[in-house]
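Researcher: Batch entry, complex prediction.
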Amino acid sequence: MANTAAHADDHAHDDHDHKPEGFLDRWLFTTNHKDIGTLYLIFAFTMACIGAAMSVVIRAELAAPGLQHVQPYFFNQMTTLHALVMIFGAVMPAFVGLANWMIPLQIGAPDMALPRMNNWSFWIMPFAFLMLLGTLFMPGGGPAGGWTMYPPLALQGGASVAFMVFAVHMMGISSIMGAINIIATILNLRAPGVDLLKMPLFTWTWLITAFLLIAVMPVLAGAVTMLLTDKFFGTSFFNAAGGGDPVMFQHIFWFFGHPEVYIMILPAFGIVSEIIPTFSRKPLFGYQAMVYAVASIAFLSFIVWAHHMFTVGMPLGGELFFMYSTMLIAIPTGVKVFNWVSTMWKGSMTFETPMLWAIGFVILFTIGGFSGLMLAIVPADFQYHDTYFVVAHFHYVLVTGAIFSIIAAIYYWWPKWTGRMVNETWGKFHFWWTMVFVNLTFFPQHFLGLAGMPRRIPDYNVAFADWNLVSSIGAFGMFLTPFMMIAIFAMSKKSGAIAPQRPWEGAHGLEWEVPSPAPHHTFTTPPVIKPGMLAHGDVSH
Amino acid sequence: MRNFGKWGLGTVLMAGCSWAFAAAERAPWQLNMHPGVTQTSHEAYQLHMLSLWICAVIGLIVFGAMFIAMFKFRKSKGAVAATWSHNTVAETIWTIVPILILVVMAYPATKVLISEAYTNESQMTVKVTGYQWKWGYDYVNWGDKPYHVRFISKLAGDSDRTRQLRSGLDPNSVKNAQGENTYLLDVDKPLVLPTNTKVRFVITGDDVIHSWWVPALGWKSDAIPGIINDTWTNISEPGIYRGQCAELCGQDHGFMPIVVKAVPPEEFKAWLDQQEAAQNPSATPAAAPVAQQTPTAAPSNG
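Model: Structure tokens for the complex:
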């Protein structure tokens, strides 16, 4: 996905990009939102491959009963790091990369509001992950207490605890700076005429997501700092023997963790809300309702955290409150799904690759939403909790939700980034291959959970063997998809058809008003908004 | 089950689908939750089926509409896009109706939860302690009579040998006398409980957080150091019920199963008295069998 090749394309719109000449000047010292966006996306893709490799270790061990490949402790390191790498290394940076690329283009801004900080936000990330992944090569190995880092178990780790805590601090700093930058950009740099309620949904969802990030990343930092002092400085925040409370960690962690879940899905809602109207050739249904739904989901995300911990022994009143508040999330989420379907209704649809991924998102994310609703029912959750049913649930919302939307976004905006079209046949093959194997991987996990298989175990009774084998076959098929993606996009970069300025017939919005590929600097003078230029210029809907 | 007697939807739906799912506990290719052997587990199962069917129906409607749209409103079929993007009536309906559906789900769930939280009026109490990586059980009382029976329950030897990395042993051949595969689901000493008795559990952890879960009983409860959780069960039929630790607790988290052996109350009482005599011979000298004195196994905690 590198954007490094010199643009020798003989485009009519040729311009003087003023890109820095040297490699270091161009990439290490960059303050350009497009280059930083590219860096984020490459980083996220690399991390996704590492995380996927870990999942292959997990699924290989789980392919058959008995321990064949790894010791249980190493298995636990894999599950822990797989989650940390995928959440903080792949999904979040990918969304930040898309935000960097697209928000200035969508609101007619010349760049992000704080370009130097933007550079720093990115360049912290590789170091955070070097530290985190480096623990695998240290005595005692990597963190093995789960990505949720529950004490006292997490504190049984060795030096990896400190490295994990500092890595989380650095990711947090990066996220907070990124979020500040996005808020500052959206609130200050919109071109005249791009009112808040005329902004594209992707920009809207990121504005709200950025506020969530600012609110909760410091909470996570506080929680892990207390872990650090409990481990190394003799405090007892979470140590019952010293007057502390292990459950308090869970409350603090999930006060971060639940909004975090929406940090990873709200931008996905935004992406899908861009793509479906484009390929339905019809304006987004209920634009304002969509914005308000995202805002309500964001608000609710702060008052549902304890549904991750229904089995810790909360008082009845607490369980009821968190059950009701969690169920309420179904309302705005339902509104979003109904609006996407209504956008398609009486449209004039075509099914180019980005649209396929977006439709796949709507269907499979909704399945993840259904299992989420089921998990909210406390008496049933007493059975579901910490089983493979939960694993299936969050992979449906994160893989077929967040990651599907990221892939959809890459297919959608790639022509704008590179000036090249992607081969539709291969794009569709990529989609259908993924559809088959992702469902093969995760759907049987519902059955395993309901049959009673706990999560985070390296071995299991033979009754669970069949569905586990199916799931592992699915995972091995999934592991081919990153390489497929590299091939497809490298092929496009090298020999793809030249992309027009508006490669998708139904696309509206300012990003389609600049040439393809987007020049190094865009909107150095604010665009003059003409009627019909904005996707949501008509505020009546 | 009585919570739903007058409220038949769940039962009807359950009956409608019961053919689709095998009834055995942990069967190969099993698709669905097992209804279990307690009121709690039946209620959990019914709420599960209720919400599953509600989701299935909503899914059918939403995905059905999507597929109709995808086939009908194609550009290749000459579909021309409408220009509307708003419909107040539709939007009101699909905000209000889901609220009503949620109420339908929340009402029975609330009733069940309230009954599950009521741990009073139990006939006996068992204290469960999670250790890395085994379970400790203390029988505290039977009715008004205090007991001091305590033992540790850990993974059975055949499973433990088989589960070692590249042990060369076949998990499929770990079977009990009945021919049931018990790989990773068998212990050296099961928790014996009486049937048709309200048993209260107090659950805690010794080192890290564990979670005590037997699916047939219908709930799990975290075993947390420094915290005592209480919950209850009332098992309706005798049998062997197996479960596992459900909270990541370190390297052998997958290897600390739970086995509950439910027996009729008279049989249980006889067993408990025998254990008491064996573990605390001085307290009940008359019943003490001489051969089984184990001085280390008699802590006097309650």
